[in-house]
Amino acid sequence: MANFSTHISVAAAGAGLLSVLCLQVGLAEPREALMLALLGTIGGILPDIDLQHAYPSRIMFSLFAILAAFMVVFSSENNLSIVELWGVGLLTFGLIRFPIWTVFHEYTTHRGSIHSLVAALLFMFLMTAFAHHVMGESPFVAWLFGLFVFLGFVLHLVLDELYSVDFMNHRIKRSFGTALKILDWKKREKSTALVVATIIAWALVPDSHAFWDTLLSADTYRIIGARLLP
Asked: Where are the transmembrane segments (predicted)?
């Protein structure tokens, strides 16, 4: 299994290169390209969110808690005092960072359901829905945000599989096949819950026709080809 440093470095490099491409061919504005690089990097450590005593899990839950706290505070009534708003924010942060984090790890195992392509789809749909409904991004940009999370997530799974192969001694480690999988077929209840959550998240995403039409258009790749080299 690749370590945290490798995952975040490779994800940041890959997301950075792709975000520059999106910027140069007109798929994203500078602010959006910066977000794409960040989201791709986050996606690159998301699969390790189920590893309770690892940095990715603590970092990701802390980020989620901070984001949720700000959302709750800024959506609260203006008649609340400053101290009350501070209290609401701290309570929201503490609730997500500690009890929810603890419960999450009670029902997840590392390289289980979260280490799967279905989980990658779930996080892509969640990011897309969040970007559109909460951040107010257009459907195209929201899907682009979601795609970068998905790509970073899959890159993490691929790296874990590559590290399961000992190329020097020409052998395959016992961990091979536990990272890059569609679902965790051994944990049927958890995998079923994951599929249900993914379907629900899919129902929340905005229309994707314009996004896929642009992404699969021959004109898009002609522009990329024209701008790729000096």
From this structure: 58-76, 82-104, 116-134, 140-159
